[in-house]
Design brief:
With 246 residues, the protein is of the alpha+beta class. The chain has 2 domains: 76 residues, Beta Barrel (OB fold (Dihydrolipoamide Acetyltransferase, E2P)), CATH 2.40.50.140; 164 residues, Recombination protein O, C-terminal domain (de novo design (two linked rop proteins), Up-down Bundle). It is built from 6 helices and 8 strands, in the order βββββαααβββααα. The strands form 2 sheets. It has a 5-stranded mixed β-barrel with strand order 1-2-3-5-4. A 3-stranded antiparallel β-sheet has the order 7-6-8. A hairpin with a 2-residue loop joins strand 4 and strand 5. The protein binds zinc ion. The site of zinc ion has 7 residues, from loops.
């Protein structure tokens, strides 16, 4: 039986002598694992279809519940990602989130379009960190670990000055309304969070707050799910090195 899917590669690992094993994320069937033969040989016709983040129409052959890629026609290779480490690391976070949290064989059109649009923006626009922060915020909500609010939990105002957060129930607090269990977070993190909530696209010039926000969102996800993303650590280490944000 043959299946046609629109999908991008979220993971590609060596398999047997000349093959690879791909984890694809598809519009039609969610996450799918498929082998692709001979792509490690030079000049292999389908080599492109085994590269990370390649977005293509894949034709799979199914046999005993296992899939093999028999053809692919590419939609976008997102080649820029291979030329720019920051872009590559940002997309690695998107790929890992999908790999860890998306369900196998279940279509999720909203999550698929969130992910593919974020990869597109990271690849072709300059504001990759802002794009990644928005993706993380939206993906966390889409996966059901959403944020309760963005105003102070007690006085319900937008917080000015010092900001506090309680991870247990996902609440912000201003200094006046503080109660037990809140930890202070950076004001820049909160400002960047509000911009994401309001859909404000930020310039890379104001990178610090966005880097803090990404760390905050990854910590939040870790708190809620116990999953620590390897790609998240690689990205934040890279950003700290290149931007000087602490
Ligand atoms: Zn308050």
């Amino acid at each position: 039986m043959e299946v046609k899917i629109n999908a991008f590669v979220i993971k590609s690992i060596d398999y047997k002598e000349n093959d690879k094993l791909l984890t694809l994320y598809s519009l039609e069937s969610g996450k799918i694992t498929a082998s692709i033969k001979g792509v490690k040989k030079s000049g292999a016709k389908l080599k492109f279809a085994s590269e990370p983040f390649c977005f293509a129409e894949y034709i799979l052959a199914e046999k005993n519940g296992r899939y093999t890629v028999i053809n692919a026609s590419y939609i976008d290779s997102f080649y820029n990602l291979r030329l720019d480490l920051k872009k590559y690391y940002a997309c690695a976070v998107i790929g890992e989130i999908i790999n860890v949290f998306a369900e196998p064989d279940v279509s999720d059109k909203a999550l698929f379009s969130l992910a593919i649009n974020a990869i597109k923006d990271v690849c072709y626009k300059g504001e990759e960190i802002s794009t990644l922060a928005s993706f993380l915020y939206s993906a966390i909500n889409a996966l059901g670990y959403g944020f309760n609010s963005y105003t102070c939990h007690a006085c319900e105002s937008i917080i000015k000055g010092r900001v506090f957060y309680r991870f247990k129930d996902g609440l912000f607090s201003c200094h006046n309304c503080l109660s037990e269990g809140f930890n202070e977070i950076k004001e820049e993190t909160y400002k960047a969070f509000l911009n994401v909530v309001n859909g404000v696209e930020e310039d890379n010039k104001f990178l610090d707050g966005q880097v803090y926000l990404i760390k905050f969102l990854l910590y939040y996800l870790n708190y809620k799910t116990d999953v620590k993303l390897k790609s998240g650590e690689a990205l934040t280490a890279f950003l700290q090195e290149t931007s000087g944000a602490k």
